[in-house]
Amino acid sequence: MTIHIINPNSSAHVTAHMAEAIAPIAAMSPVALACHTLSEGPPGIETQAHVDGVVQPLLAFSDTLKDEASAFVVACFSDPGLAAMREAHDVPVLGIAESAYMQAMLMGQRFGILSLGRASIQRHIRYLGALGISDRLAADLPLGLGVLELADEERTLERLSEVGTTLRDRFGADVLITGCAGMAQYRARLENMTGLPVVDPCQAAAAAAIGQVMLSACNNKREKRV
Amino acid sequence: MTIHIINPNSSAHVTAHMAEAIAPIAAMSPVALACHTLSEGPPGIETQAHVDGVVQPLLAFSDTLKDEASAFVVACFSDPGLAAMREAHDVPVLGIAESAYMQAMLMGQRFGILSLGRASIQRHIRYLGALGISDRLAADLPLGLGVLELADEERTLERLSEVGTTLRDRFGADVLITGCAGMAQYRARLENMTGLPVVDPCQAAAAAAIGQVMLSACNNKREKRV
Amino acid sequence: MTIHIINPNSSAHVTAHMAEAIAPIAAMSPVALACHTLSEGPPGIETQAHVDGVVQPLLAFSDTLKDEASAFVVACFSDPGLAAMREAHDVPVLGIAESAYMQAMLMGQRFGILSLGRASIQRHIRYLGALGISDRLAADLPLGLGVLELADEERTLERLSEVGTTLRDRFGADVLITGCAGMAQYRARLENMTGLPVVDPCQAAAAAAIGQVMLSACNNKREKRV
Amino acid sequence: MTIHIINPNSSAHVTAHMAEAIAPIAAMSPVALACHTLSEGPPGIETQAHVDGVVQPLLAFSDTLKDEASAFVVACFSDPGLAAMREAHDVPVLGIAESAYMQAMLMGQRFGILSLGRASIQRHIRYLGALGISDRLAADLPLGLGVLELADEERTLERLSEVGTTLRDRFGADVLITGCAGMAQYRARLENMTGLPVVDPCQAAAAAAIGQVMLSACNNKREKRV
Amino acid sequence: MTIHIINPNSSAHVTAHMAEAIAPIAAMSPVALACHTLSEGPPGIETQAHVDGVVQPLLAFSDTLKDEASAFVVACFSDPGLAAMREAHDVPVLGIAESAYMQAMLMGQRFGILSLGRASIQRHIRYLGALGISDRLAADLPLGLGVLELADEERTLERLSEVGTTLRDRFGADVLITGCAGMAQYRARLENMTGLPVVDPCQAAAAAAIGQVMLSACNNKREKRV
Amino acid sequence: MTIHIINPNSSAHVTAHMAEAIAPIAAMSPVALACHTLSEGPPGIETQAHVDGVVQPLLAFSDTLKDEASAFVVACFSDPGLAAMREAHDVPVLGIAESAYMQAMLMGQRFGILSLGRASIQRHIRYLGALGISDRLAADLPLGLGVLELADEERTLERLSEVGTTLRDRFGADVLITGCAGMAQYRARLENMTGLPVVDPCQAAAAAAIGQVMLSACNNKREKRV
Q1: Residue E226 pLDDT level (bands cut at 50, 70, 90)
Q2: Could you name the CATH architecture of C2-95+203-224?
């Protein structure tokens, strides 16, 4: 049995970064982890139409993996289709945003989110409200970077430092979340730049998924939704 | 390295039940789990004085385990000394109540808590507020049972059924939490009686602790508090 | 120009009931209202997969109406695709659930929701959280009726009376919302049975849409999203 | 039948500005809109004593209009006497602040309020709490302008630009509300300066009132308070 | 100097009951307490129009007492004119509802309110929201009694027992508040019937006012509003 | 009978400052106030271990004062052992932080906290959540001063002015709280520098305790916890 981590965008290099980010976790894991690229997805998930548009392909693709799946991870910070995936599958399904929030709540009192652009912040705020954890948010600020600009290390680190410091000093964040699936390579450096723990959503979700699989071992019906 | 699960009360049979409850998890875990009884603790933790009274012994005992610890779990549903333990240790520290809440939030929208007595509910409500997740609570109702009465299976199952059904039907709970460390033996039956998933706090915390250890593998400084 | 009200399920008789429900409003309206059935939709929207599955057809269908649209209304109580519709269109887009909540907030302090089944309540609770108005909810209770059973007047009225009275007397609701697009024919009777004002989501959204069109007249760029 | 919009301060020029602001709405409306000045009111409503002091005259004046009224609008951003007006009248009664908040909630996730002075902000915060929508507020900041200074276009635009930009960039507002009845003439320019939609409370309330009248057509008893 | 407690209704016997209720406090107080009846008030404050209608007379009457006042208490559970009174006076002004809530928050985690009729509950809920303490409310239930019916001891005690027990057992209240100025004579018996502490609003406000006067002694400018 | 104010740290000079701060209150009080130093406490309470570590000594010491106590005040801004003290004693027990928050809520709509260091802010945020009053917090900012540095008047006043002004202007605080037991000597000057009322926690708690004692006079069983 395997934990299937599905990147709902079609960019294989993003999936490759995820695999690299979770390698230390996979190395320890008693259950296999496999990263997949959703070929039907857009190159990047930037709009609400993208978010809603990948749900059906996600359901279809995950259905093909169903028989050998011990858990699924939806690896996009908008957690597209999470509720539908949970409805469709008996095994645990995790979203990287929800997992990152839960992880941050274990590591500090108020988390700060570093989002790529302003557009996604509205979605995050709505989602935090839906999760009933808005009070744990210090602030969610835009880096003002496009997905492609993340390749520019110098510029990215400069913005991460600026925004991370603002989240810490002006908004009182004591833990940070990189609000995007493809920023694991910057996590350690952001921790060093700010002195705060930084949560990478993919790593948080991979670890959480392993925990869910172990809990399922206590009772296979445990994850059954009502 | 080992995940040390410390039962802060001095009742070895409670610790034995915990070990039994987490056995399926331990069997899969890449890291060893060890359950301990805090000999300085009271037979059961029922009052605020008990909660506060075990903090110092917990800190002292955990200090003796420090060098071989990859994580700690405080195994009492009042999460005594959790903040102090996190302050004292660089490795992850989990509380079974916080872990149960996080687990329940992954399994439903509003959780119901089955507490032993009325006295602990005030504490739970304060704690949920401190965690900023009060909106996820459906209700917290007392079973009206003492720790010893949990040995009376018939009476306990009757009350679990009554209270669990009330939480589901009157308060809209879609997931249940047994608000006590020693009720794992009733979990599956409570699920069958109510048709709702039921979270056992010790199992939830053990699984979460393994996830935290794996995350630490991504970055040993990760858990460092600011 | 026209306000296009789209029923995202494929049941024409439901659309016919909507048209009937809003007839008094259409009769007064300075702008035409047209009700449409989304032929690609399922007969009824009951699962999360249904909710997510209608978004793309909704976007496609609304796109064909775009040039002559002064506003859109998504006429399903789960407000499927509302964010994506707003992203796609420059004209106002209303959801019947959001509109019903806003209307209820003008008519009482705490609204009660009468939902068909238990399954949709989780969605409603998440949505109220996303809207930041959870404190205005008295309770959301299931009628335990399927869409087809709504045709059974006697049974439906009996359950509406039971649940409406419970929302008023046990949970303190001072206004009620029928949590489904097809119950307008029961609104007046539910008001008489409970003595509380009752909001029909389709009527609330139609009226709100007319208001939005008039506001747009003050400034055509007004509805432009950022 | 007529929608009566009552400016509770005695400054006829403010009433004239309101009439101008809602002219595009009135031009489309199937029901007449009439703006009135409350002669017993103070020149401007700036203190809590002013707010409370206009309630009785408002009730008395609205009573004289009762027989030909299809709805009332209280046109002061403190919504003076709104609850008493609703208690007194069977027809819909709207306040421009409540209407502006509802409108802003349809146009963005978090609204920013531009208030004239610091003194009114305490009132706004209390009111948002009473409405249960505090989570939708980004921030409420003072322009530091008196009512008379609004006549100084240059100074006013400069402050609107500064405060509007701060609300957008530092506090994450994605929609703005001018927290005063007499600023409609600046709305379009504030939208251009900030790129955010801006809600004028009088326009929002006028449009909402028309919607309420149309809903009343579905059921004359609809607005009856319990 | 004197603490002036003003009953904003015109029923002298209610004022007499207040004086009796606070007698044990007055006997210990270093500063004199005087109870007054607002002759311009209605016999009882039951509607929103009553609430708003007493503000001007309250301000006028309190102004005549100003020179010898060390504090004011507005002795109606709707706290009419509290904000205006605080704006008008430099000395501390207390409302009996706000004081009762604060007192209850010191005595339990979630308070239950026993209101006379359904009508006032909407007001209480709005007020708790304005105070930002809604999370501390267990529930607010109507006794279904008019002010005059409070003279019927048997009937009143029966309802107090029913509602108090419901607040405790169904809604988890651990402290109760009698939501009316004239019920002090029932407080001790309600405590005995429910086993919960019961807050009488007038007693709570009188004690709080004495505390405020003592704080003022530390700094006469202390209470100055900004 | 006496109100015993216990400074849980072992620094007698801090206790001396407290006694000085409450002298004007003690001078008016009908009941004696006595300040005590907890010799078993640390010189200052700066860590969570300190907070938890003083609970047992506090309980033991307060037990020796029990027979002549009319109330207790725990005089540390972390309110260590407050719940345990209330459980242990039948007389009122107040914490200076809770009392300061309640006092600030009477003096403004949103309070700002001036904390010594960043470390204590996490604790304050958790506590405000537990009290259910997070919405009343404007912000909690660190002065960046150690307890000893408070002796440096020039430096302290400079930071108080900077932070107090930021709380007022950027975060909209309309009342301030000095988040430490030993800053009463700066209160008046901070009020003058900011124009905002400033709450000293020890003064607030002393005044509140006197009020509680007077309330107890109405009913000796009043403070009995359930």
Answers
A1: very low
A2: 3-Layer(aba) Sandwich (3.40)
Q: How wide is the angle at C-alpha D173 spanned by C-alphas D172 and D177, nearest 5°?
A: 165
Cβ neighbours, 10 Å, residue E24: 17
pLDDT digits (tens, 9 = 90+) for B48-57: 999 999 999 9
Give the mean pLDDT of D116-142: 96
CATH T-level assignment (fold) for domain A98-201: Rossmann fold (3.40.50)
CA gap C184, C206 in Å, rounded: 13
Contacts of C141 in chain B (CB under 8 A): 172
Pairing type for strands D2-7 and D69-74 reads parallel
- SS3 of D4, please? strand
Share of chain A above pLDDT 70, in %: 97
* Ranges of each domain in chain A: 2-95+203-224, 98-201
- What is the residue type of E172? G
What's residue F148's pLDDT? 83
Which H helix or E strand runs over D115?
strand D111-115
Of E134, E197, E221, Cβ closest to residue F191:
E221
Chain B interface test: which of F47, F52, F137 (most B C-beta within 10 Å): F52
Distance CA B74, CA F49 (A): 16
Mean pLDDT calculated for residue range C49-58: 97
- Of A193, A184, A129, the C-alpha closest to A16 is A184
Q: What is the mean pLDDT of residues E108-124?
A: 95
* Paired sense of beta strands F2-7 and F175-179, if any: unpaired
Q: Is the pTM of this model over 0.80?
A: yes
Residues of F at the B interface (Cβ-Cβ below 8 Å)? 47-49, 51-53, 55-56, 59, 81, 83-84, 87-88, 118, 123, 126-127, 129-132, 134, 226
Place of tokens 């303190």: C172
In this structure, the strands spanning C198-199 and C175-179 are: parallel
pLDDT band for position D148 (50/70/90)? confident
Establish whether chain A is in contact with chain D, requiring a minimum of 3 CB pairs below 8 angstroms.
yes
Q: What is the 3-state secondary structure (H, E, C) of F163-194?
A: HHHHHHHCCCCCEEEEECCCCHHHHHHHHHHH
Contact A174 B226 (CB under 8 A): yes
Long-range Cβ pairs for the range C153-156 (8 Å, 24+): C156/C186
The rounded distance, in Å, linking the Cα atoms of E53 and E55 is 6
Burial of E41 (0-12, 13-18, 19+ CB in 10 A): buried
Chains B and C share 3 or more Cβ pairs within 8 Å: yes
Same fold yes or no, E2-95+203-224 and E98-201: yes
3-state secondary structure of C119: helix
What ipTM goes with this model? 0.94
Mean pLDDT of A177-199: 95
For an interface test with F, which of D122, D128, D137, D143 has the most F Cβ atoms less than 10 Å from its Cβ? D122
Give the tens place of pLDDT for each residue, F13-40.
999 999 999 999 999 999 999 999 999 9
**Cβ separation of D48 and E131 shorter than 8 Å?**
no
Helix, strand or coil, per DSSP, at residue C34: strand
Q: Contact, C82 vs C186, CB < 8 A?
A: no
